[in-house]
Design a protein that fits this description.
- By secondary structure, this protein is α+β, with helices and mostly antiparallel strands.
- Helix content is about 20%, strand content about 20%.
- It has four helices and twelve strands.
- It has a five-stranded mixed β-sheet. Strands 3-12-11-10-9 form a five-stranded mixed β-sheet. Strands 7-8 form a two-stranded antiparallel sheet.
- β5, α1 and β6 form a beta-alpha-beta unit.
- α3 packs parallel to α4.
- The radius of gyration is 19 Å and the shape is globular.
Length: about 350
């Protein structure tokens, strides 16, 4: 039997039924990423950071009415970035997509678009936007750009991100199991913690790396003493962070199962970032199911556990890939600037 391997693109869009669109504003040093399923998709969510900024996450609770979403939006801009979903909602509604209790001419459907934001307001970009922040526009531009290819690094919602003392960014990765299950992740890394071990260039996610996808340095350099955070943010006043992500699978899940996958996937951030889930992080992970493959009737709980484990590994890899690919700015180091 063949072993598991990344999908053809090594991106979340290897999950059948998903596209991703991104848009950025170079002057403002910010951006938006939209995960767009071809059809409404079951979703779950898990929030671990102490300072989250989210939209419509309550709608994803398994006991609530809505059981599927039309898109997931990840955005920079802190609270201003929540408006990115408005642009996505308007576009989806104009396409006749969304949830509708009433089927009647002249009554628009209601697109369900949960989202999460990261803090990039103090990264040196021009934020003098007054009463016209760019995020509604960026949300619409991103959803219009939805495709199978995804730019990594300084792109999308990770455009203005930092990963500790290094330039952060948008990362993605995928895995296709030996029996054909596909799991993917998209993450925007704006962490307080460091993605590399102290004193070197080795990513904490190194044990999970496949085919040299973020430098191929291996795990030999992974060591740290207590309270040694390496390239984490050193300024105790710098308390404005957040890593936001979406994992996805083609296996049919219920809302409760999707939430369990999101919970398990959070461990991928713990494997890739040290420290993580701090009081001033807003870490959020969404999980999507495109339901292209059935969940086994027998052993369903084991299958969910397996998908969650794959999602955690894929999210760790995506986190490292986002920083590995990030193009630095003047005065801001990228991973490639670290001494060899």
């Amino acid at each position: 039997m063949p072993s598991a391997a990344p999908g053809a693109r090594n991106l979340i869009t290897d999950v059948p039924g998903l596209k991703v669109g991104q848009a950025s504003d170079a002057a403002a040093r910010t951006g938006v990423s939209v995960i767009l399923p071809d059809e409404r998709a079951v979703a779950g969510c898990d929030v671990r950071g102490g300072g989250p900024g989210t939209r419509e996450t309550d709608a994803l609770a398994p006991e609530n009415l809505v059981d599927a979403v039309d898109a997931i939006v990840l955005s920079g801009g802190s609270v201003y970035g929540l408006a990115a979903a408005d642009g996505v909602v308007a576009w989806l509604g104009a396409q006749g997509r969304g949830y509708g209790l009433v089927s009647s001419s002249g009554v628009p459907r209601s697109p369900v678009v949960p989202g999460a934001i990261l803090y990039d307001l103090s990264n040196g970009g021009d934020k003098a936007w007054g009463e016209e922040p760019p995020y509604r526009r960026l949300g619409r531009e991103a959803v219009l750009a939805a495709a199978l290819d995804v730019d990594l690094g300084t792109a999308g919602a990770g455009y203005g991100a930092m990963a500790g003392a290094l330039k952060g960014g948008t990362g993605s990765a995928s895995i296709v199991s030996a029996d054909g299950i596909t799991v993917g992740a998209l993450v925007c890394v704006n962490s307080f913690g460091s993605v590399v071990a102290p004193g070197g260039r080795s990513f904490w996610a190194a044990p999970y790396e496949l085919a040299g996808e973020f430098g191929g340095l291996g795990a030999a350099g992974l060591a740290a003493g207590p309270d040694d955070w390496g390239l984490a943010k050193s300024d105790p006043k710098a308390r404005m962070n957040t890593t936001i992500a979406c994992v996805a699978t083609d296996v049919a899940l219920t809302p409760a199962q999707a939430r369990r996958v999101a919970i398990m996937a959070q461990d991928g951030l713990a494997r890739a970032i040290r420290p993580v889930h701090a009081p001033f992080d807003g870490d959020v992970v969404f999980a999507l199911s495109t339901a292209r493959r059935p969940l086994p009737a027998e052993g369903a709980d084991f299958a969910v556990a397996r998908i969650g484990a794959l999602a955690a590994d894929v999210l760790a890899r995506a986190t490292a890939r986002g920083v590995y690919a990030a193009a630095p700015w003047s005065g801001v180091r990228g991973w490639r600037d670290l001494p060899v």
